[in-house]
Each structure stands twice: as structure tokens, then as C-alpha cells.
Amino acid sequence: MRRALVLPACVAAALIASAAVSGCGSSSSPPASTAGTTGTSASSASATTTITIGLPNSTPSFANSDVAVAQAEGFFKQEGLVVNVDNLSSGVPVVQGVVGGSLQIGASSIEPVVNAAAAGAPVQIVGSYADKLTVNLVTDKDIATPAQLRGKRVGIQAVNAFREVMTRMVIEGAGLTSSDVTEVPSSSSAYISELLAGEIQSGVLQEEQTLKALNKDKGLHTMLNYEKAYPNYFYGAYVVNKSWLAANQVTAGKFLAAITLAHRFMYDHEAATVAIVAKNTGYTTATIQQAYQVLLTQEQAFPVNTGLSAARISATIATMQRYKTLTGGTAPSVSSLLDTTVADGVADKLGTLGKPLDS
């Protein structure tokens, strides 16, 4: 049963390394008395700051719709932010944009961030959009086990991008290698059509994509739920350039405050959230309603406090090493990769929420 919330008073690593060198240089909202309590004064909040953030999908996903909720419910506005969104093909160009300076904040699965840091890029994780995996491996029904992917065509985004990493984890866990399958590069928006057309026999799909695909073709099934298979794997990071963070702590805090308020709103306002996410992603209300039950009611994938667990990030880096998806060089330490200072400050000001929604 869902707990109600109470608001208190790399393309390749070499490319990223190169970028590091060049880039070093209408629904009911919570009461205003609690929804925007970030500790900023009225005068400072009235000063508007414009930032550009990058999202890792050409078509918005439910997992990244916290930004759309923060926009629709006015959380960015009340924090004094104008947030421009750049939808990119995967986390790899998002991280490159952060390193190069075209993006102030990026949303990416953790793998491109870790690989960029391993290659020497000055990246730092400061927040999370979904700290648990929100995807499934969808295959033809005659593929019942990972070992049966041998000889099949599997959909990926790009080498070292999220979906390729997730696919590699499954096939290598079954004792296969990438040479045992045919990798088919594709955009996130094309996976369903390619599965339906038989152009690929396996694809890593977000929850709403999974529901749509299974509804359209009864010959498909969810072979693997990643959150259940890898419960300690950290998924979605908000990442910044270390030099930008050093000069923009207040702006980073305002962004994370708005995102935290968006996450809390999502748990407390189901109907409004479903409407916003359906509009943002282009999926039907019925599909998003189903996805809501999985992602928020069952899995509670969106953090309501910082969402930054050093233990989970450490375990994820170890998993990347195990499956050889860490490609940038020496694994970065968690202490160098993670900065919780701003997120901790936001949690202190907003008040932390207890179990079961305590991430």
C-alpha cells in the first residue's frame, strides 16, 4: 500500500577524456508554506537564474519526468530557476555536454559518469532522478533465459551507453560475450517498433515502453526485471562539472530542491502526476497509470531525500568492473565521484522523510 508523504514546515572514453581537456576551463500543489521551503529569502528567490540541463533520451521517459513535474507544478519557478531542457540520445552525450560546458546539469545513468571520471573528466554526482533501475529486458517469448540470447539480434543505444551496458550485464552473466550476439544500435524511441517488426529479439525498455510493447504483441515478454535482478544497482544521476559546482552551489541547491519537491509531489498526487507524465512522454494515460503503480507504488524508484547512497554507488562500480563495463581507466573512488553537500543541505531544509520512502 502506498505511503502518503507529509511535507514538513562514453561515445568512447577517449572522446570524453578529450572533452575534459577542452571543457575544463494545472493540478493542486502542496501549500506554498511547505512546497518551496529551501531556506532562500524572498529577495534572493526573486533573482532568476537560467540553466540548461540534458536528459538522456530523445523521447522523454517516465524515469526522467521529474523535470516535467517540477516545471508543471512551478517548483523551478519558486526556486528562481528557468530550466531549459535538451533531450539527447543517451547519457554519453549528456556527460560530454556537462564536461564541455554546454550543459550546467546532466541526467545520466551512472555508467557514462563513472567512465568519464575514470578517464579523468571533472564530473561529480550531486543528485538522483531515480536511484533504482526502472527498466526491463523484453524479448521474444521463446527466449526464456539469458543464455538463449546467443545468436540473437539485441538492441543497444551505443557502446557504453546505458542500454548496451544493461544488455552486456545479462549476456556476460550468462557466460556469453558481445561476439555471441548481434548488437543493433538504435534510438530509445525505436525499440518498440523494432521488437514488433522482428528486427531485434531483445531490448532494454523503460516501464512504460514495456507495457506498450507487451500490449501490442503477445509474443513478447519481460524476461528480466532489472530492479529485482540488481536491487543494489544505482541508476540515475544528476551530474555536474566540478568547476561549475564550485561556483554555483546555490543554483545547484535550488535545482535539487525543486527536484526533491517534484519527487514528493509524485507520490502524493497520483492523478496529477499521471497526467503530467502522459503529456510529457506521449504515452496514453492508461499506460502511464500502470507504470505509476510499478515505479512509485511497488518499487518506489524516485528518491524523496537525497537518493545518494555511497554503498549503492560503490556496489555499482564493482558490478561495472565485474562485467567489464567500466572502460575509462582506473575506477574512481566514491568519495571523488560523489558530492552530497548540496543534497544534504536541501534535505536538511526540506526535512527528511522516514521509511519506507527514505532514499
Walk me through the topology.
Elements: H1 13-23, H2 32-35, H3 42-45, E1 49-55, H4 66-72, H5 75-78, E2 81-87, H6 91-100, E3 105-109, H7 110-118, E4 123-130, E5 135-140, E6 153-156, H8 162-173, E7 182-185, H9 191-197, E8 202-206, H10 207-216, E9 220-225, H11 226-229, E10 236-241, H12 242-247, H13 249-268, H14 270-281, H15 285-298, H16 310-322, H17 334-337, H18 341-350
What does this structure look like?
This protein has 359 residues and is α/β, with parallel strands linked by helices. The protein has 2 domains: 237 residues, D-Maltodextrin-Binding Protein, domain 2 (3-Layer(aba) Sandwich), CATH 3.40.190.10; 95 residues, D-Maltodextrin-Binding Protein, domain 2. It is built from 18 helices and 10 strands. α4 crosses α13, α9 runs parallel beside α10 and α14 packs across α15.
| Gross CATH architecture of the largest domain | 3-Layer(aba) Sandwich
Distance linking N and C termini: 18 Å
Helices and strands, in order, run as HHHEHHEHEHEEEHEHEHEHEHHHHHHH
Quote the beta fraction.
15-25%
Which bin fits the share of residues in helices? 40-55%
Which class best fits the helix and strand makeup? alpha/beta
Low-pLDDT ranges:
1-45
DSSP strand count: 10
Number of helices: 18
Total discrete domains? 2
CATH topology of the largest domain: D-Maltodextrin-Binding Protein, domain 2
Strand order of the largest sheet: 2-1-3-10-4
Largest sheet geometry: 5 strands, mixed
Q: Under the CATH scheme, which class of the largest domain?
A: Alpha Beta
CA-atom Rg in angstroms: 20 Å
CATH superfamily of the largest domain: Periplasmic binding protein-like II
